[in-house]
Amino acid sequence: MTVQIHNSWLKPLSGEFEQPYFKELMEFVENEYKEHLCYPKIEDVFAAFHYSPFDKTKIVIIGQDPYHGPEQANGLCFSVKDGISHPPSLRNIFKEIETDLGTPYPESGNLEHWASQGVLLLNATLTVRAHEAGSHQKKGWEIFTDAVIKKLSDEKEDLVFLLWGGFAKKKTKLIDKNKHHILNSGHPSPLSANRGYWFENHHFSQVNEILKKKGLEQITW
Questions:
Q1: For 208-217, b where at least 16 C-beta lie within 10 A, e where not — what string?
Q2: Closest to 66 (Cα-Cα) out of 149, 141, 118, 3
Q3: Does the CA dihedral 64-115-154-15 come out positive or negative?
Q4: Staple partner for 198: which of 18, 31, 181, 193, CB 3.0–4.6 Å?
Q5: Cβ(198)–Cβ(165) under 8 Å?
Q6: What residues of the chain score a pLDDT lower than 70?
Q7: Are 212 and 218 in contact (CB under 8 A)?
Q8: What is the pLDDT of residues 56-111, one digit of tens each?
């Protein structure tokens, strides 16, 4: 399997690509895509690294698994392809943006425009079998994506990490809190949001306030 990522990621991640676990992971993924229907499309597996170059990344949002329904996943966490109905978590994200920033609820759930502004939309596991949530977990992806988070923390400054839900919050240990900003809240899934752990977290306005203070271009959410 060929790793297609923006050139700016090659140097920071070159050490990972040579590791035995990564080579085994690529073989596993290649076989899975041959034998089963998997998501996202093979050419979109590393989309997060294509749309958000290492040197341009300002914000990191951490998801868990790609969507496993037909034509949903596009390689960016929480994002779906144009024309696909919005999954519940994404609906709640857009509702929070609507109330936080006063912007209208969008028609498309494709978050490529976030990624192109420096928002790394990183799932911990980058592939999944159709209709089998979590089917590619513990195969090596988490080792790789943890290394990505650590590398961003070590080599950059003033990143904003949005950690939504218990799974994402566990990644705090990989982040240097003295160099970066961490915003925590509940997960946008209905289970968490309906208990009052997601709405009114104001993460999107907080991110832009942090960027503004640093003299950086704000995100058009």
A1: bebbeeeeee
A2: 141
A3: positive
A4: 193
A5: no
A6: none
A7: yes
A8: 999 999 999 999 999 899 999 999 999 999 999 999 999 999 999 999 999 999 99
Q: What is the spatial distance between Cα 155 and Cα 139, in angstroms, rounded to a whole number?
A: 26
In this structure, which long-range contacts are made by residues 162-167, counting pairs with CB atoms below 8 Å and at least 24 apart in sequence?
A: 162/59, 162/60, 162/61, 162/62, 162/203, 162/207, 163/62, 164/61, 164/62, 164/188, 164/198, 165/189, 165/192, 167/62, 167/64, 167/124
**In terms of DSSP H, where are the helices of the chain?**
10-17, 20-35, 47-51, 88-101, 112-115, 141-155, 165-169, 190-193, 203-213
Catalytic annotation, residues? 65
Residue 20: CA count within 13 A, CB half-sphere = 0
Q: Which residues of 81-102 are buried (b: 16+ CB within 10 A; e: fewer)?
A: beebebbebbbbbbebbeebee
Residue 31's identity, in one-letter code, is N
Instruction: Report residue 69 as tokens.
Output: 């329904």
CA distance 3 to 10: 10
Q: Which run of H or of E encompasses 181?
A: strand 181-185
Query: What is the Cα 204 distance to its own chain's centre?
Result: 15
HSE-CB of 172 using CA atoms within 13 angstroms = 14
Contact present, 134 and 32 (Cβ < 8 Å): no
Residue with tokens 């990972």: 16
Q: What is the rounded distance in angstroms from the CA atom of residue 65 to the CA atom of residue 56?
A: 24
The answer to whether the pTM exceeds 0.85 is yes
